[in-house]
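Every protein is a chain of amino acids, and every chain bends into a shape of its own. The protein below has been through that process, and both of its lines are reproduced in full.
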Amino acid sequence: MLQLANILYSKGFSIIIIHLPFNSPNPLNYPHFTFYSIPNGLLEHEPSSAEIVHLVTVLNIKCVKPFSDGLSQMLLDVKEEPISCLITDVLWYFTQALADSIKLPRIVLPTIDISTFLVLAALPILREKGYFGTKDFPLEEPVIETPPLKVKDLPEVKAQDPEDFDHYVARTMSESKASSGFIWNTFEELQKDSLTRLCQDFPIPSFTIDGLLWAVRLSAEGLIAVGVAWSADANCKEEAIRAECAGHVTDEIG
């Protein structure tokens, strides 16, 4: 997320980072960003003791008010340069309703590739069909819901409560569909088939930023070698993103 923020900053966007108190970024490393910390409402023992799906679900509930309050305050503080776009990790589905309530476009940044995202989206259906332990399938049998994967390629899903996990996945996917689009850290040419299937299941814009992890290099003088992530169609992708983010990006991380 911070790497994406660096790239957007290099293209002229202002960046505000909304973050939780634990594992928070060091503002001294990013003097060109504005940081805003919100409480998460968790007890001290909860982050280390909770099962990950349960923890993220709880955060999606407890962060609603502090995030909403913080966003409302920021909207008041930046009247001269209005916030016009919210970029969040796909995990934080609660932000979609908040963005809708103030008519703010939300763009989703999954931290997994498109193929893995499609498998995740299909998990409830795959579980219902018995792919996770209730039936025996030949390992070489194709999985029609997630081509070109075979049974042997399916991930092992470990969850204390499969129903809670499936509910979380379903909620994440439904709120992603309601967003203004995806930003993917991938090469379009490498995942062309997956991108085609994604557009069929999620009929919203998808922007690939071709190798984000290779794009940003920091030096003592500031940002260098930024922008190499954009390939030959760089201007098209940049203008598409600018159409969604008209100048001020609010960047949320967890």
About this structure: The radius of gyration is 19 Å. The longest strand covers residues 14-19.
